[in-house]
Specification:
Shape of chain C: globular
Order of helices and strands of chain B: EEEEEHEEHEHHHEHEHEEHHEEH
GO molecular function (chain B): ATP binding; ATP hydrolysis activity
Distance between the termini of chain B: 26 Å
Number of strands of chain C: 12
CATH class of chain B: Alpha Beta
CATH topology of the domain at 5-35 and 43-81 and 226-321 in chain C: Rossmann fold
Protein name (chain B): Peptide/nickel transport system ATP-binding protein
Largest sheet of chain C: 8 strands, mixed
Chains: A mainly alpha (about 300), B alpha/beta (about 350), C alpha/beta (about 325)
Strand order of the largest sheet of chain B: 8-9-10-5-11-12-14-13
CATH superfamily of the domain at 5-35 and 43-81 and 226-321 in chain C: P-loop containing nucleotide triphosphate hydrolases
Oligomer: heterotrimer
Largest sheet of chain B: 8 strands, mixed
Helix content of chain C: 25-40%
Distance between the termini of chain C: 29 Å
Strand content of chain B: 15-25%
Structural class of chain B: alpha/beta
Strand order of the largest sheet of chain C: 6-7-8-3-9-10-12-11
Number of helices of chain C: 11
Strand content of chain C: 15-25%
InterPro entries (chain B): AAA+_ATPase, ABC_transp_ATP-bind, ABC_transporter-like_ATP-bd, ABC_transporter-like_CS, Oligopep_ABC_C, P-loop_NTPase
Radius of gyration of chain C: 21 Å
Order of helices and strands of chain C: EEEHEEHEHHHHEHEHEEHHEEH
Organism (chain B): Desulfatibacillum alkenivorans DSM 16219
Pfam families (chain B): ABC_tran, oligo_HPY
Number of helices of chain B: 10
CATH architecture of the domain at 5-35 and 43-81 and 226-321 in chain C: 3-Layer(aba) Sandwich
CATH superfamily of chain B: P-loop containing nucleotide triphosphate hydrolases
Number of strands of chain B: 14
Number of domains of chain B: 1
Bound molecules: adenosine-5'-diphosphate, iron/sulfur cluster, magnesium ion
Radius of gyration of chain B: 22 Å
Chain lengths: ~300, ~350, ~325
């Protein structure tokens, strides 16, 4: 353990992190946001999933520092009388959860398909890459409409509310795996030509072994690079779907559904219902993207050849 | 070598081509006002025939792009020849599937050129060396495997205490030692070495060449040694094959090829080696431009650059003939006596 | 004592993560008009960095931390960027191992050549064309008129290196620094390029600094040899003397390790170990962990470059300094 810690402390990763104020700031904000959202059940002033604690009489209260605001509801309440701050914390938790889940699914699908396409090559490669092209030409929205339509037909609306989280993960995961597939395939093609892979073949190691033990680990740094950006993209996709009413239901709002639910009231003066979750969403996504840029620069092999 | 002995490796008229045409649309060219579909084929190895006998150091020399690495990879089964047969110890091996080749992989190994690319950067030395044992000697216990690794590391001159280090912690020469150790792990009898010292500094080159010779003596190895450096070849080979554009020009015993080169290309190659302390040595100038393997010339592949070329050279492909002392030469001029 | 180029106590450092390291240490040598000098040593010895330092082309994280480079009596270090530009690529040209470091892949050879001439000389476009053509003829490019319109990718490696040499010649430089110009080429082509370089040095009265790891090449082309090891000069002398009678233990080992200096099939004599990296340079003589003659003083004190029998033969080794006549 100590050895790994020392290795980490001497690594180029840590070195360039310490020297990059943007990376440090983004990382700190991200960590704070993540901690806040995952401890929502303990730190949020109100439980937004508990319908008994919501009083419609408190609806559309402005933030605490405004004239009609109440100190009970620091950032005001939404149209149903839910505490905005609590709803945002719970909502961010859902957004991050769906983002991470979808990226895991994308990565598993994309890495497997990319690895097989790149290593086997030939007709298998052409076929899998055409599938990726077709998949990319369907937008996430279309996949979402189709899948949720099928799901609602099969299980009904009630079930949908319970299963919305895994369903969104599947939708976003299915829609965006080709990013991974292509990246992995490209680096497998590069790696496959290297002499250590040829050496493994001369030794006569089984092909699946060469594929998973030798090639796969050496293609993971581009995967890491796109993963950060993909998480941000997945969170945005989820927000977009929820905003369009295809995502999380109002009873279990994500940041996207919060923005959506407040959007109608923005002109009647209740701007806070949309603005606060909006700002939070943008902060989250920007911070992840900035971190992604930094990771890309650090892992760019051209920058640290020697 | 003794021609009565059974060859360990036998190549019969081996051809290897690469299709470098690219995508579907790149195959079309405008010619004479209409599109024609054309494939671009690199003829990397063209009808190569030779035998390698037990205990030999058989060297293949030639300039870059002449097909040496392709030949090496065809022999070790990394590439499938288009045409021709390869026999190992009497068995035909070129038409076997990947898994059918497994028993031969224990007997035949390869060492590569690039000390930086030939080791998996994420594997420690121990892991790299343990893998071949894992698959070819599954009956060994962990202790036996580790003993064997330590023994071979000692032999190639890498301290066994460094087994847990990663390749990037070693210099180029040490990595090449580890590559050699990996090849030796399965206790092979035949090693194909593709320019194993070309990327190394002179002082390290000597260390690695010595290691090769030492291992040969201790283990009775047979080598197919590929290089572009004639001075290295001179030092270690029992027989030398000279290649030009995928074809064999000359195949002679080691000493012979340096003291008495016969083929015009061999002569040019030898005269071009910069020798220590011979200021402005005269060397044979070749004429014309380097020929590309995409458009192989008709007849003798060397005729565009050969100062001896005559009419017949542009038309007929010269076949190898025996020119005394076990030397074989493929040249009309030598055969008919107009090349001195 | 007016040399064309004189390097005095040159020192180049690199600012690395682990701190500053010295890549070039106390390097001094000179070059006279029309003279050909070889800079030899294994990779990492500091040959290229020395070459770059001469034309003040050391980029971050490196910097010249000491010493002088005098060209025609003037210290290059003290010149303005404009004046340095006027020397670099004009009075001193550099040729690299990879021709594509000099050639622009998207411009035709003719365009690249005329642009270079117009940047350095006050001539008309037609005159520039004529100069370009003349230089292509000088490097023996067949049918040069046609070649002017072609792009770098249409040439073979050897031809590209010839074109790079032609470009280097455009401004009639006084010095050419050639950094491993033939390392990537085949022997037959290497021989041609080396012939060409020697021929040009004679006909154009140019001085040449030939940087290479290949002792054979250096011994055929140059008048003097400078042997570098781990950022320092360890031996300097007339080529024929150094090659036939090397004095420094490292040079001796290097020459003995060449396969051609051995009997066939015998084990080669070898120098144990490898050159140290800049970050763990040994104390004293940096060759001492590999040296057969190592003495206690070698581990403490850096040996100075001293004259042996004549003023052309310099060696940095305690064993030779003490014995005097050794
Ligand atoms: N995988 C490949 N695809 C296409 N062309 C290849 C491939 N491998 C080698 N070639 C071509 O085959 C010829 C011979 O190459 P190679 O065997 O590597 O030569 P050498 O090892 O003698 O330098 C070259 O022209 C090279 O461009
Ligand atoms: N940009 C750089 N950053 C860090 N170290 C460098 C850089 N360029 C060269 N060096 C170091 O300087 C030393 C000399 O390098 P170089 O002059 O290129 O050697 P060579 O003799 O092979 O031409 C080497 O140890 C190398 O690692
Ligand atoms: S066959 Fe003709 S062209 Fe070929 S090497 Fe002999 S003389 Fe030259
Ligand atoms: S100074 Fe000492 S260690 Fe260095 S080369 Fe001379 S004898 Fe060897
Ligand atoms: Mg090769
Ligand atoms: Mg260099």
């Amino acid at each position: 353990m100590k050895k790994y810690w020392r290795r980490f402390k001497n690594s180029f990763f840590w070195f360039s992190f310490r020297r990059d104020p943007v990376a440090i700031a983004s990382f700190s904000i991200l960590v704070i946001l993540a901690i806040l959202s995952f401890s929502a059940p303990w730190i949020a002033p109100h439980d937004v999933y508990e319908s008994s604690s919501i009083d419609i009489m408190n609806s559309e209260l402005p933030p605490a520092w405004m004239e009609e605001g109440s100190s009970d509801y620091m950032l005001g309440t939404d149209i149903q009388g839910r505490d905005m701050l609590s709803a945002m914390l719970y909502g961010m938790r859902l957004s991050i959860l769906i983002g991470l889940g979808a990226v895991c699914l994308q990565a598993v699908l994309g890495v497997l398909i990319g690895l097989i396409a790149g290593y086997v090559g030939g007709k298998v490669d052409s076929f899998l890459m055409r599938v990726a092209d077709v998949q990319l030409s369907f937008s996430t929205l279309m996949v979402a409409i189709i899948i949720s339509a099928i799901f609602q037909l099969a299980f009904g609306l009630a079930k949908y509310e319970d299963l919305a989280v895994p369903l969104l993960i599947v939708i976003i995961g299915l829609a965006e795996w080709p990013q991974y597939g292509r990246t992995v395939r490209a680096s497998v093609l590069g790696e496959k030509k290297k002499e250590y892979v040829e050496a493994a073949r001369v030794i006569g190691l089984p092909r699946w072994w060469i594929m998973f033990r030798h090639i796969l680990p050496n293609t993971l740094s581009p995967v890491l690079v796109i993963s950060t950006v993909q998480v941000a993209n997945a969170i945005m996709s989820e927000a977009a779907l929820s905003f369009l009413g295809l995502g999380m239901p109002v009873t279990k709002p994500s940041l996207g559904s919060l923005i959506n639910s407040g959007f109608e009231y923005i002109f009647s003066g209740s701007w806070w219902i949309t603005l606060f979750p909006g700002v939070l969403l943008v902060t989250l996504v920007v911070v992840i993207n900035l971190l992604g840029d930094w990771v890309r620069d650090v892992l760019n092999p051209k920058l640290y050849k020697r | 070598m003794n021609t009565q002995a059974k060859p360990l490796l036998k190549l019969e008229d081996v051809y290897k081509e690469f299709d470098v045409t690219g995508g579907f649309w790149e195959q079309f060219r405008w010619e004479n006002g209409r599109p024609v579909r054309k494939k671009a084929i690199v003829k990397a190895v063209n009808g190569v025939t030779f035998d390698i006998y037990q205990g030999e150091t058989f060297s293949v020399v030639g300039e870059s792009g002449c097909g040496k690495s392709t030949l090496a990879r065809t022999v070790t089964g990394l590439l499938q020849p288009e045409c021709g047969k390869i026999f190992y110890d009497g068995d035909r091996i070129d038409d076997l599937s990947y898994s059918q080749k497994t028993p031969y992989k224990k007997r035949m190994q390869m060492v590569f050129q690039d000390p930086y690319a030939s080791l998996n950067p994420r594997f420690t030395v121990r892991k790299t060396l343990e893998e071949p044992l894992f698959f070819h000697y599954p009956e060994l216990t962990r202790e036996q495997r580790l003993d064997r690794i330590a023994e071979v590391m000692e032999q190639v001159g890498v301290h066994p205490a460094w087994a847990e280090r990663f390749p990037h912690e070693f210099s180029g020469g040490q990595r090449q030692r580890i590559s050699i150790a990996r090849a030796l792990m399965v206790d092979p009898e035949f090693i194909v070495a593709d320019e194993p010292v070309s990327a190394l500094d002179v002082s390290v080159q000597a260390q690695i060449l010595n290691l090769f010779m030492e291992a040969q003596e201790k283990r009775g190895l047979t080598y197919m040694f590929i290089t572009h450096d004639l001075s290295v070849v001179a030092h270690i080979s029992t027989r030398v094959a000279v290649m030009y554009l995928g074809s064999l020009c000359e195949l002679s015993p080691g000493g012979e090829i340096f003291n008495n080169p016969r083929h015009p290309y061999t002569k040019a190659l030898l005269s071009a080696i910069p020798r220590l302390g011979e200021k402005k040595a005269k060397h044979i100038r070749l004429k014309g431009e380097v020929t590309s393997p995409l458009h192989l010339p008709s007849g003798c592949v060397f005729h565009k650059r050969c100062t001896y070329a005559k009419e017949i050279c542009t038309q007929e492909i010269p076949t190898p003939f025996t020119a005394g002392d076990n030397a074989a030469v493929a040249c009309h001029g030598v055969e008919q006596g107009w090349v001195g | 004592m007016d040399h064309l180029l004189e390097i005095q106590n040159l020192e180049v450092k690199f600012r690395l993560r682990s701190g500053e390291v010295t890549a070039i240490n106390d390097v001094s040598f000179f070059l006279d008009q029309g003279e050909r000098v070889g800079l030899v040593g294994e990779s990492g010895a500091g040959k290229s960095v020395t070459g770059f330092a001469i034309i003040k082309l050391i980029s971050k994280p490196g910097f010249i931390s000491g010493g002088k480079v005098l060209f025609e009596g003037r210290d290059i270090a003290g010149l303005s960027i404009e004046e340095v530009r006027n020397i670099r690529g004009n009075r001193i040209s550099m040729i690299f191992q990879d021709p594509m470091m000099t050639l622009n892949p998207v411009l035709s050879i003719g365009t690249q050549m005329t642009e270079t001439i117009l940047a350095h000389k006050n001539v008309s476009k037609a005159e520039a064309q004529a100069i370009a053509l003349d230089k292509l003829k000088k490097v023996h490019i067949p049918s040069p008129e046609k070649r002017l319109d072609q792009y770098p990718h249409e040439f073979s490696g050897g031809m590209r290196q010839r074109i790079v040499i032609a470009i280097a010649l455009l401004t009639d430089p006084a010095v050419i620094i050639a950094d491993e110009p033939t390392t990537a080429l085949d022997v037959t082509i290497q021989a041609e390029i080396m012939d060409l370089l020697s021929e040009l040095c004679e006909s154009e009265k140019m001085a040449l600094i030939l940087i290479t790891h290949d002792l054979g090449v250096v011994s055929q082309v140059t008048d003097r040899i400078i042997v570098m090891y781990a950022g320092r000069i360890v031996e300097q002398g007339l080529t024929r003397d150094v090659v036939s009678n090397p004095r420094h233990p490292y040079t001796k080992g290097l020459i003995a390790a060449l396969p051609e200096s051995q009997q066939r099939g015998k084990a080669l004599s070898q120098i144990p170990g490898t050159m140290p990296s800049l970050t763990d340079m040994p104390q004293g003589c940096s060759f001492h962990p590999r040296c057969e003659l190592v003495m206690p003083i070698c581990k403490e004190k850096v040996p100075e470059l001293i004259e042996l029998d004549n003023k052309n033969a310099l060696v940095a080794c305690h064993a030779l300094a003490k014995g005097g006549a050794s």
